[in-house]
Amino acid sequence: MATPTNQAQEIITCDLCAKPTRKFCNNCQVSLCVECVSKHVDKLDSLPHDIVPFKDRKVPFPECEFHSNQRCEAHCQQCDVPVCLKCMLGPHNGHKVKDMPENFNDKEKELEEETKEIESRIIPQYKKKNEETESKISTTMAECDELDKEKEKHRKLWHQEVDTIFNTLGSLIKSMKENHLAALKSHQSKINNCIPDMIQTVQRNKEILKSKKVFEVTNYKSKLEEYRNMPTDIDVKLPSLKTNTVQGRELSLELGEYKTCLTQKTLSSLTEEVYYLSLQKLLEQAKSITTIPTGVNPLFHVACVGVDEVWVSGKDKIIRRVDIHGSVRDTVTTTCLDWPNDITVTRQGELVYSDANNRTVNIVRHGRTETLITTPQGWHPGRLCCTKSGDILVSMYTTDFSQHKIARYQGHTVKQEIDRDEDGEPIYKGGEYSLYVVENNNGDTVASHGNAKAVGVVDKSGRVRFRYDGTPARRKKSFYPKHIVTDSMSQIIVTDYNNACLHILDQNGQFLRCVDNCGLDNPLGLSVDSEGRLWVGLGLSGEVKVIQYMK
Predict the structure, then answer these.
(1) Are strands 445-449 and 435-439 parallel, antiparallel or unpaired?
(2) CB of 341 within 8 A of CB of 354?
(3) Secondary structure (3-state) at 361
(4) Could you confirm whether domain 271-550 is CATH 2.120.10.30?
């Protein structure tokens, strides 16, 4: 065992005790001090021992596995294998070799240094890191428990608030009931009080007629007009109870003048958005994990499926499903006359593509193609986005490319159209390039507009929030946006074809950074997988780059 004392010298100690070694057993390959020689021999008296001074120790040469009866007296530095004389004259001829004893000593020293570093430095570092992580686990558990207690506290408060709302509503209905019934009963009482008087009048009139007395007949005072004027009806109208429920966002009630509303301000789910917002941030430098050859050239569109697979399409009718190793797992032959205008994937993992010539948006289910949407006459479907709510955003253009708009479809029905701003002016500039479209987590519709060389964002109502023209990125060439996506942090990521990079913005249009260090030549297609990695399709090479940009 080697124990270094300083940088100039090291003392070799006995393998049986801590004293300096003086002897060596060549047979057993054991270092010994003078006192331990007899102990070693006596302990293993059934074996032969070759005890020599330490400086005369020998390293046993291993047998060559390729040449029988040959000992490997050297070690090939180029191939890192033991070699015999025949090996050095044969397949290892010309290679640099080192004598076996020298190689043994070097390796032994390397092993000792490695063992020392692992034991003295690396293991303590791991133990310290383990303790730090354990502390974080305990802290996190404690904080989550506190959050859970706080949650239950607010659960009770919210229930109390809801109970107060409905108790108030109940009191209001009770008050309405009492007031309306009192008015109706008063009206009924007036009517009932008139009936006995009218019966009495009828009886008296009959008696006058029967008596035929001139005086009584001529002095009769008619009450007919009084009786004809029946007490005015009371118009009792109860207000209807109006409710509106937007699941997970808003609850509202309205009864007459009484109105109340419970609104959730954040739309992010605890299992998806909050988790990423709290734990993820941009890496200082994006990393290219792998480059996948697809065989599709040129490559226009990519759409991730889960973690390690992606649909790709180019300038033919076939859409291919390729895994992260470049193997084709599935193919779909489309109905397109030329090629798909875009591809995307639903939340259930179903492939959707647009067919511009036939004016259709199609879905592939169980190997069969079905038409989901047919666009209006004169309008052609361009790019697509399947939203979290199940809607489909379709960018459209007229046959002459003079007009562009975005339609939100719920099933076959157009739920919203985005084409004009508050002043009635077109939001999107006419031209030959289709709008790339995506929905952000806050409900914004984000469009990459090649004709205007800009990214435009409108809110849920269709009001323009902001535009981004690439200026803050300070690139050499003009900004030329193509495919666009948003991620779990609501960041907007768009390919810049001219500058071979990606622009990353926050949800309010603030420029964050460019990804320009991953060899993104002619980037076109863009998609995000379920682990938050970017899959970038390179138009000319037909390759897909998988990039990690957040940690």
Answers:
(1) antiparallel
(2) yes
(3) strand
(4) yes
